[in-house]
Design brief:
Order of helices and strands of chain B: EEEHEHEHEHEHEHEHEHH
Largest sheet of chain A: 5 strands, mixed
Structural class of chain B: alpha/beta
Distance between the termini of chain A: 38 Å
Oligomer: heterodimer
Number of helices of chain B: 9
Strand order of the largest sheet of chain A: 2-1-5-3-4
Strand order of the largest sheet of chain B: 5-4-3-10-9
CATH class of chain A: Alpha Beta
Radius of gyration of chain B: 21 Å
Number of helices of chain A: 1
CATH architecture of chain A: Roll
Chain lengths: 65, 273
């Protein structure tokens, strides 16, 4: 299925959970936050399965003033 | 001018150590210097600067995960044991800033936020209307809000009224290194503040940080002055010393400025030669 992940269109497997996507992209679940279609998804709900067409933002801390 | 005899057991190094703690929202911070992590050429350079600064709190920005990035600023900060203060840098409106703060809370498990809502990319000056709106929303959502604000006493007052835990007026635009352009406004903000006042942005070198403290500020937040210095760790140590010196001088009470000279040696008892 096709999703938009951090602004880029990507194909991912059906049934992929948010937690799995986070691990694949960030290599860790620490220090990461997720928004799906503009809504924050709390860590406790990361076992939820993504669906095609969703817009996913994966955010973490970077150097910054 | 002789010094008074020193108190037994109290040498020069301890005379200023009876200061009140630097406290934000009930949390004591070990240093009045807060270090931004932006602009450092590498994580190793940043780590050395953090150590040299002896800061207890560092800011980070919230950005998209980049799978190609090696190492994490979070690892550096966690290893140093400093408190992490996420910012909302780059946000141009209240809605975006509030959402960014909430993402930061989710990612970093902190409800502290350095709130930045800037008007445009050219000046990076705070947008006062969006800033106040975002501050009010975030306070209502339970955040400890530390707003980066203009050096405007009225806006600082309004930010306190909506419940901000500190006010952080700029000395000069972000990254400009122009120092404190309007010391009088900073003094006005300090004079009526009921929360800590932290000069944030514009610091270029150690004397700027010392001046901020001499004006009565409770702390200084700076990034570029250290991270973009030729030797960041050396400048970090200078900033730590400057903040300490400025604080001591402010507590000590400076002499009034005078138009004319005033002799410090006795004017009587001169030999007739």
């Amino acid at each position: 299925m096709e999703l938009t992940i951090n602004g880029t269109t990507r194909q991912i497997d059906e049934g992929t959970t948010i937690a799995a996507l986070v691990l694949a992209q960030a290599a860790t679940t620490e220090g990461v936050a997720v928004a799906v279609d503009g809504e924050i998804v709390h860590r406790a709900s990361w076992d939820g399965v993504l669906t095609g067409g969703q817009v996913v933002e994966l955010i973490t801390a970077m150097q910054g003033g | 001018m002789d010094d008074a005899p020193s108190t037994p057991g109290m040498d020069d190094a301890t005379v200023g150590m009876d200061d009140v703690p630097f406290t934000i929202a009930g949390i004591d911070l070990p240093s009045r210097l807060i270090l931004g992590t932006g602009g450092a050429p590498s994580l190793d350079v940043l780590d050395a600067a953090i150590r040299a600064s002896r800061t207890g709190m560092c800011t980070v920005s919230m950005r998209r995960v980049d799978p190609s990035t090696a190492g994490s600023v979070l690892d550096v900060l966690t290893a140093r044991g400093v408190r992490i203060l996420p910012n909302t840098a780059g946000c141009r409106g209240a809605r975006e800033a509030v959402l960014t703060a909430k993402l930061a809370r989710e990612a970093l498990n902190t409800d502290w936020v350095k709130l930045e809502v800037v008007a445009d990319e050219h000046t990076l000056l705070p947008d006062p209307f969006e800033l106040l709106d975002a501050a009010e929303q975030l306070v209502a959502a339970g955040f400890v809000v530390l707003p980066y604000t203009n050096d405007d006493p009225v806006l600082a007052r309004r930010l306190q009224q909506v419940g901000c835990a500190a006010v952080m007026p700029l000395g000069a635009p972000i990254g400009s290194g122009l120092g404190i352009r309007n010391p009088h406004n900073i003094e006005l903000i300090v004079a009526e503040a009921r929360v800590p006042v932290i000069v944030d942005a514009g610091i270029g070198t150690a004397s700027d940080a010392a001046l901020a403290m001499e004006l009565g500020c409770d702390g200084v937040l700076l990034a570029s002055a250290v991270t973009r210095a030729q030797q960041p760790a050396l400048m970090a140590e200078a900033m730590a010393a400057a903040v300490t010196a400025g604080r001591l001088a402010q507590r000590a009470g400076r002499i009034p400025r005078r138009e004319h000279a005033r002799a410090s040696s006795p004017t009587t008892g001169m030999a007739v030669l």
